[in-house]
Design a protein that fits this description.
Number of domains: 2
Pathway: Cofactor biosynthesis; thiamine diphosphate biosynthesis
Organism: Kribbella koreensis
Order of helices and strands: HEHHEHEHEEEHEHEHEEHHHHHH
Structural class: alpha/beta
Shape: globular
Distance between the termini: 33 Å
Strand content: 15-25%
Family: Belongs to the NMT1/THI5 family.
CATH superfamily of the largest domain: Periplasmic binding protein-like II
Helix content: 40-55%
Mean pLDDT: 90
Oligomer: single chain
CATH class of the largest domain: Alpha Beta
Radius of gyration: 21 Å
Strand order of the largest sheet: 2-1-3-10-4
Keywords: Iron, Metal-binding, Pyridoxal phosphate, Signal, Thiamine biosynthesis, Transferase
Protein name: Thiamine pyrimidine synthase
């Protein structure tokens, strides 16, 4: 059925290109005369925070519809969970941290691959509050002098937890001194404010959310960004099932382009994107969502980056894999770039 819909869409495009009206053919149109839309399911990387607003912008502004898709957006619960749901066929596309994706695929062969990049720099981090154990930009503060373990609250299998060994190796942190404590994602900021842990696994853009949750003491967030120590790390990637990549590459490229168009708009006007997000997710805090998008912009378009939005560099992927092997995060030979990204489908300049 998926192939039939894709074929119909291709016929419609060819008809328009030759000046023919596809709308006169009921096999290509709905009952109201409009072109039929292909149903597509999409998972955010993690909940419906401001950092995920770009997908809702693409939906609201009709970018998905213009590309021929009727998209259903569902909140994701972290990279590994998103990968498994997409691999299992319960979703067509999803978002996940690229490094966590590589680590997972090196250990478990799931039928998913990267078809575009959201952030050109990793946003993974450990976040604490001032006055606590963790000091801003000081990885060594993760190791307590009294020998006790530093407690980091996080969702099991999250990007921050899966990627932590690589960061720790580069930052000179003894991983045995740090304990990740399973905690529900929506409660992380509140648990940190209540001093239930020394820090939380969080993206850099989560700082406004963390500070907003500390309603009594109004403490500033302190951040340990993984990208400070591991420079080649990408951020979130757009992932798709292998069968879509193989059998329907045109669909994949159209979906990716529509999603990235929503990203461009969200970064150009974060406040407007936050309003759109609130329309679809009523409990959205517009101020926090706006700040998240503002903080995310330099990770999507870093200073000095001259590549195309969504692009992926094979040699950079090779360097990350080499680092993962060097620091014993994955086994040598367990993956190569072609196993984790389809460069034929990623955006090109």
């Amino acid at each position: 059925m998926r192939f039939r819909r894709s074929a119909v869409a291709l016929v419609a495009v060819l008809a328009l290109a030759t000046g023919m009206s596809a709308c006169n053919d009921d096999s290509k149109t709905g009952t109201n005369g409009e072109a039929k839309l292909e149903k597509v399911s999409y998972l955010t990387s993690f909940g419906t925070f401001g950092r995920e607003a770009y997908a809702y912008v693409a939906l609201e502004k009709g970018y998905f519809k213009d590309a021929g898709f009727d998209v259903t957006i569902t909140p994701g619960k972290g990279t590994v969970d998103v990968m498994k749901i997409v691999a299992g066929g319960q979703a067509d596309y999803g978002i996940g941290d690229f490094t966590a994706l590589m680590i997972t695929l090196a250990k478990q062969k799931l039928p998913v691959t990267t078809v575009g990049m959201i952030q050109q720099r990793s946003m993974a981090a450990i976040v604490g509050l001032e006055g606590g154990q963790i000091k801003d930009r000081d990885p060594k503060s993760l190791m307590k002098a009294n020998g006790e373990k530093t407690r980091i609250l996080d969702q099991p299998g999250s990007t921050n937890q899966v990627t932590f060994p690589l960061y720790a190796q580069q930052a000179g942190v003894d991983t045995s001194k740090v304990e990740f404590v399973p905690s529900p994602p929506p409660a992380l900021a509140g648990l940190l404010a209540a001093n239930k842990g020394d820090g939380i696994g969080q993206f850099v853009v989560g700082v406004p959310l963390v500070e907003a949750a500390d309603k009594e003491k109004h403490r500033k967030a302190v951040v340990l960004p993984y990208g400070d120590k591991v420079k080649d790390l990408y951020g979130n990637a757009i992932i798709a099932r292998d069968d879509l990549v193989k059998d329907h590459p045109a669909q994949v490229q159209k979906f990716t382009a529509a999603l990235l168009k929503g990203m461009d708009d969200a970064l150009a006007d974060p406040a407007a994107a936050a309003k759109i997000l609130k329309k679809y997710v009523p409990d959205t805090n517009e101020e926090v969502a706006t700040k998240e998008l503002q903080l995310m912009k330099p990770y999507v378009k870093p200073d000095g980056y001259t590549g195309v939005a969504g692009g992926v560099e094979t040699d950079r992927v090779e360097r990350v894999i080499a680092d993962l092997v060097k620091y014993n995060v994955i086994a040598a030979g367990s993956i190569k770039p072609a196993d984790v990204v389809d460069t034929d489908l990623t955006p090109k300049g």
